[in-house]
Amino acid sequence: MTVPRWLRAVFLVGFAYLVIGLGTADLARLSGAAWRLVAWATSAVVFLAHIAYERTRLRSATTTSALHAALAVALGAFGLALAATLRATATGSYRGAFALALVAWPAMTGIVSFVAAWVLLTVAGVLGKKPGESQ
After folding, report:
1. CB neighbours of residue 57 within 10 Å
2. How far apart are alpha carbons 65 and 114 in whole angstroms?
3. Is 84 within a domain?
4. Chain CA centroid to CA 112, Å
5. Residue 64 CB partners (closer than 8 Å, separation 6+)
């Protein structure tokens, strides 16, 4: 059984978001909040690269590309929420909000990233059309 390329990309990009988040969180604790900006910028580049991969290599439709990008973001957010929950449990500072984060973080980030990717791809598609070209 072969795993579809889009699904491999979702897992790879989701893992990249997790690594970016965990790595920069530790660095931010040690040397300042500038690392949060590095995380956002790096994640934005990964997000745009994933969308470009979906459109150019996989030839996915706008909605499909946005959905796959949103799934990767949600997966990364779930990984971060899980890491935060495990860390809180290990340090004895667990609260019920950590359980809520396991659902809320992926849902919030996934919805926002779907809308952002869809708008970005739609605008890029409109701007990329030649004058007189039909839709």
Report:
1. 11
2. 9
3. yes
4. 10
5. 6, 54
The range of the structural domain enclosing residue 74 comes to 5-123
Q: What is the pLDDT of residue 31?
A: 83
Share of the chain above pLDDT 90, in %: 78
Cβ proximity of 106 and 81 under 8 Å: yes
Sequence-ordered list of residues with C-beta below 8 angstroms from that of 58, at least 6 positions apart, any chain: 5, 6, 9, 65
User: Is 88 within a domain?
Assistant: yes
Q: How far apart are CA 30 and CA 12, in angstroms?
A: 27
Tell me how far apart the alpha carbons of residues 23 and 3 are, in angstroms, rounded to a whole number.
Answer: 28
**Cα(6)–Cα(110) distance, rounded to whole angstroms?**
16
Contact present, 94 and 35 (Cβ < 8 Å)? no
122 contacts: CB under 8 Å, gap ≥ 6? 62
Please state the pTM of the whole predicted model: 0.90
Quick one: average pLDDT of 74-93?
95
Domain count, the chain: 1
